[in-house]
Structure formats: structure tokens, C-alpha cells
Design brief:
With 123 residues, this protein is mostly beta strands. It contains no helices and 5 strands.
Length: 123
């Protein structure tokens, strides 16, 4: 017995009735045996003969004359009409707001709706 791997060093011998190990008794000196199990007998199917394919002669195609296509006239594109602009109400649009002086020399003018607040800074 191989103690390192904990298995029995042996050969397996198969006979008609049992399977036993030769030279590999277990720790108690008993010979390991396994009963033979017989497989169920199943009917074997008989193969059906496959028909041998007979070569059939391939017909040679006869060339048929193809008519030449007649050119179809391409339709001339019709110009798309350009839409006429609809009249819009004319109002003078102000692109920018009105400005007022900011009171700060380096800032200059600011929009009228802005507020100027003075900040006190500690030195």
C-alpha cells in the first residue's frame, strides 16, 4: 500500500465473472473484488442500404438571343418654385440694451437694468 497517496498499488484483472486486483490487497489483507454487471441486450438496428446515385446527364443549355434594351428617356427635372416671403410686421428691434455710466472709470458704461453696489474692502 502506498501510504503517501493513500491508495492501493495494483493491477486490475478482468475475468468473465468478477473484476479483482492482483497484488493490491487492502489494509486488512482482503482482495478487492467487484461483481460483474451484464449490459442489457438491445436490438441492433439493421442499416438500410443507401441507394447509389446514378449519374444523370446534364443538359447543355442552348444560348438564347437576348434582346438589346431600348434606352428609356430620362424625365427632365422640373424646377421647384421658390417660396415667396410672407410680409412680417415691421418694428424697430433694439439689438442692444441702453447703457448708463457705471461710475467706475475702468469699467465704463453698463446696461441700464444692471445695479451698481459699492464694496468695502479691508486693508
Amino acid at each position: 500500500m502506498n501510504k503517501k497517496n493513500n491508495y492501493v498499488d495494483s493491477e486490475i484483472v478482468a475475468t468473465n465473472d468478477t473484476v479483482s486486483t492482483v497484488g493490491g490487497n487492502d489494509e486488512n489483507g482482503n482482495v478487492s473484488t467487484v461483481e460483474t454487471r451484464h449490459a442489457l441486450s438491445l436490438p441492433t438496428p439493421t442499416p438500410t442500404p443507401t441507394p447509389t446515385p446514378t449519374p444523370t446527364p446534364t443538359p447543355t443549355p442552348t444560348p438564347t438571343p437576348t434582346p438589346t434594351p431600348t434606352p428609356t428617356p430620362t424625365p427632365t427635372p422640373t424646377p421647384t418654385p421658390t417660396p415667396t416671403p410672407t410680409p412680417t410686421p415691421t418694428q424697430p428691434l433694439q439689438p442692444y440694451n441702453k447703457y448708463k455710466p457705471s461710475g467706475i472709470s475702468w469699467l465704463g458704461n453698463i446696461p441700464e437694468h444692471w445695479e451698481v453696489n459699492k464694496l468695502k474692502m479691508k486693508n
